[in-house]
From TrEMBL:
Residue stretches making up the UvrD-like helicase ATP-binding domain: 9-292
Catalysed transformations (reactions): Couples ATP hydrolysis with the unwinding of duplex DNA by translocating in the 3'-5' direction; ATP + H2O = ADP + phosphate + H(+)
Known EC number: 5.6.2.4
Keyword Isomerase attributed: yes
Name of this chain's protein: DNA 3'-5' helicase
InterPro entries per record: DExx_box_DNA_helicase_dom_sf, DNA_helicase_UvrD/REP, P-loop_NTPase, UvrD-like_ATP-bd
Length: 331
């Protein structure tokens, strides 16, 4: 069987369109249970085997380490089936792991050495606690965790220590405005950064250093992002900077499944994708392989109350299934 037949054999018509649309910006609205991971996996294989794109020129980004690992396994398995060697593989990872890679390779431009440490949540809060004590601020009243939250939120929004007070106001925010610059200075002195810096500093690097930006744009002219509805400002800027030269960017997501607004995700990133790029091709994956008709109808009836959503018509071949029952639990 030809490689193209293997890649496309188990796909429905809309999935095939998404896989075969390799040039220019592509927006794939993938409803729940619509096989989006298969589309991304097969699209990577299609780029390599049918379009002759080197795996080294493909970047795929997702949100969790687990999702990235599963995608990597599926890509390697499919490439093996297609008799493609795995000596060169696409770069598949989370925003944070890819940011860490970029920063280690360009550490000198952000004032670090390549062997920098990455502080976890406890490390960050302990450092903030030490700074609060040094500033004679009562840590029983002002919790380090609260200050850490605002610093993290600022980095998600690409707000620097110097401009924090221009964007945030309030009692805790005013204290954070004092601590944030000291915190960043301490991190730098320890050759360390925190989780938020992995994207915040990467975006600063790409936006301020044209040579580094150009290097990565040429290295990864083909880019795919999963769960695009969950991107925050920093992640959005990362994607836009990297893709602005060749614009071969494919984003996959579903504005009906945006649940991370509390951590800075902006649903407008996927809803406004067609405004950010010219000649965007839109594909809607509407066939659901997971749920029965009654479940889909009920979910649709609820989500349709959101007047800002992109219209989608989910359907399934699974039949109506059992009626939905309602269980009301005690408080």
């Amino acid at each position: 069987m030809a490689s193209q037949d293997i890649i496309l054999a188990k796909l429905n018509q809309q999935q095939k369109i998404a896989v075969e649309s390799t040039e220019g910006p592509l927006l794939v609205f993938a409803g729940a249970g619509s096989g989006k991971t298969r589309v991304i996996t097969n699209r990577i294989a299609y780029l390599i085997t049918e379009k002759g794109i080197s795996p080294k020129n493909i970047l795929a980004v997702t949100f969790t380490k687990k999702a990235a690992g599963e995608m990597q396994e599926r890509v390697l398995s499919l490439l093996k089936e297609l008799n493609v060697g795995n000596e060169n593989t696409p770069l598949i990872g989370t925003f944070h792991s890819i940011g860490a890679l970029f920063l280690r390779n360009n550490a000198k431009y952000v004032g670090l050495s390549p062997n920098f440490s990455i502080f976890d949540t406890n490390d960050s809060e302990n450092l903030i606690k030490d700074i609060l004590v040094e500033q004679n601020i009562d840590i029983k009243q002002i919790k380090p965790k609260a200050i850490s939250y605002f610093i993290s939120a600022a980095k998600n929004e690409m707000v620097s220590p110097d401009t924090f007070s221009h964007h945030y106001g309030g009692f805790l925010e005013d204290i954070t405005a004092e601590i944030y610059p000291l915190y960043q200075k301490q991190l730098l002195s320890q050759n360390a950064l925190d989780f938020g810096d992995l994207i915040y500093l990467t975006v600063k690097l790409l936006s301020e250093n044209e040579r580094v930006l150009g290097k990565y744009q040429d290295m990864y002219p083909y880019m795919m992002i999963d769960e695009y509805q969950d991107t925050n400002t920093a992640q959005y800027m990362f994607a836009k900077l990297l893709s602005q030269k060749y614009q071969n960017i494919c984003v996959v997501g579903d504005d009906d499944q945006g649940i991370y607004g509390w951590r800075g995700a902006d649903i407008k990133n996927i809803q406004n994708f067609e405004k950010d790029f010219e000649n965007v091709k839109v594909v809607k994956l509407e066939q659901n392989y997971r749920s029965t008709g009654n479940v889909i109808s009920a979910a649709t009836a609820v989500i349709q109350q959101n007047t800002l959503r992109v219209e989608k018509a989910l359907w399934t071949e699974k039949g109506s299934g059992n009626c939905i029952s309602v269980y009301q639990a005690n408080d």
